[in-house]
Specification:
Bound molecules: 4'-deoxy-4'-aminopyridoxal-5'-phosphate
CATH topology of the largest domain: Aspartate Aminotransferase, domain 2
CATH architecture of the largest domain: 3-Layer(aba) Sandwich
Shape: globular
Oligomer: single chain
CATH superfamily of the largest domain: Type I PLP-dependent aspartate aminotransferase-like (Major domain)
Strand content: 15-25%
Helix content: 25-40%
Structural class: alpha/beta
Number of strands: 16
């Protein structure tokens, strides 16, 4: 079947034809590509067209598609048991790897999605502090738990309102949404309401509004204020964990959060995520403590096998300097090409993760992101797709590269970009 036929069939029996909304291409229009195969840096769709993949399953596939060590681990485990509903040695090995990589984690618990990790972490923070309020930042995404699908209320000191239908107002009103990278606004909020705040959750590098780097001092001020107010700091490193180093952005920033959430890379492409932190906090979880949290498939052996294999490759091969070079030369190539074509383009990059915005830089806030030219991104996206490059089907998502993105492949992607910029310059 063609992509179009599959999409039509899918829409009849799956809402919007997809199991996660961004895949439906609504932000860019057109027919979503139904993928049939992945291999290294490539995806192949149902019609046999091959793409260089810069989405990489939205971040997990730092080793590319079908890395042999990961495939072998999953194959082996599938032959001896896909789920036991009982503890395994794999969970012990995986927990040791994660806790070694994240010194701030004395203990870790595995779950199946980033949503579960953040939802559980904020519940634990509420229990540990005896407080209700969660603070998040505009443009950061932490999954789709009720209290995190919230947008800013009418004033900075007001608590949030639902950002989705079906979320009770009284749940949304336990979350405050503040501007990312605005240290003064955060300070003002904490000075007046800090004693109500159970936790502050933040993506240390924002990866869900394109890529926006924390301004100097922003994360440090959050750490200092949360400590002063007796609130817990949760770093949502679902994207950033294991992305820039064998560990978290927290180490690069020199900040120790109270709790950390992981996902994506940690599962090696399988559904696994995690949250962890100080032992005194984590021991408040059931069965040791009063905070209930559970999962039929938590710590699933296939997911653990994939995660262990991926983490071991990362630990042993330390590919991070190479990944950084790959993305750095790609983004500087893009900047040059855009300049030549007379197109305003701002690029934000940390290591192998980058966001492009069709506007003049700098892009440091949610408002800066929103002021970029989304319709130009749409045209660029389709021009690249046509040329065999798969970018995120939304202007507000990150691009990633993997260890499988060779210089030759990146050269082909830049060639495509040259053609795409040329096509969209008018
Ligand atoms: N936190 C962050 C920073 C994310 O980017 C995401 C998903 N993109 C989540 C949490 C939620 O993870 P999941 O989709 O696995 O529920």
């Amino acid at each position: 079947m063609t992509n179009k036929e599959l999409f039509e069939a899918a829409q009849r029996i799956i809402p919007g034809g997809v199991n996660s909304p961004v895949r439906a291409f609504r932000k860019v229009g057109g027919v979503p590509r139904f993928m049939a195969q992945g291999s290294g840096p490539f995806l192949t769709d149902a019609e046999g067209k091959r793409y260089i993949d810069f989405v990489l399953s939205w971040g997990p596939l730092i080793l590319g598609h079908c890395h042999p060590a990961v495939v072998e681990a999953v194959r082996r485990q599938a032959g001896i048991g896909m789920s036991y509903g009982a503890p395994t040695d794999l969970e012990v090995e995986m927990a040791a790897l994660v806790c070694e990589a994240f010194p701030a984690m004395d203990k870790v618990r595995f779950v199946s999605s980033g949503t579960e990790a953040t939802m559980s972490a904020i519940r634990l923070a509420r229990a540990a502090t005896g407080r209700q309020v969660t603070v998040k930042f505009e443009g950061c995404y932490h999954g789709h738990a009720d209290s995190l699908l919230v947008k800013a209320g009418s004033g900075l000191l007001t608590l949030g309102v639902p950002d989705s239908s079906g979320i009770p107002e009284n749940v949304a009103s336990t979350t405050a949404v503040l501007p990312y990278n605005d240290t003064a606004a955060f300070g003002e909020f904490m000075d007046s309401r800090g004693t109500e705040v159970a936790s502050v959750i933040v993506e240390p590098v924002a990866g869900n509004m394109g890529v926006v780097l924390p301004r100097k001092g922003f994360l440090q001020s959050i750490r200092a204020k949360t400590k002063a107010c007796g609130s817990l700091l949760i770093f949502d490193e679902v994207i950033t964990g294991f992305r820039f180093r064998f560990g978290g952005y927290q180490e690069l920033a020199g900040i120790t959060p109270d709790l950390t959430c992981l996902g994506k890379i940690v599962g090696g492409g399988m559904p696994a995520a995690a949250f962890g932190g100080r032992a005194d906090l984590m021991d408040q979880l059931s069965p040791n403590g009063p905070v209930y949290q559970a999962g039929t498939l938590s710590g699933n052996p296939l997911a653990m096998a994939a995660g262990i294999a991926a983490l071991k490759v990362l630990k042993d091969s330390d590919p991070y300097a190479g990944l950084d070079r790959t993305m750095a030369s790609f983004t500087s190539g893009l900047e040059e090409l855009a300049k030549k074509a007379g197109i305003a383009l701002a690029v934000n990059r940390v290591g192998s993760m980058a966001g492009v915005f069709f506007r003049q830089g700098p892009v440091e806030t949610f408002d800066d992101v929103m002021a970029s030219d989304a319709s130009r991104y749409t045209r660029f996206f389709h021009a690249m797709l046509e040329r065999g490059v798969y970018l995120a089907p939304s202007p507000f998502e990150a691009a990633f590269v993997s260890t499988a993105h060779t210089a030759e492949v990146m050269g082909q992607a830049l060639e495509a970009a040259a053609g795409a910029f040329d096509e969209i310059r008018t």
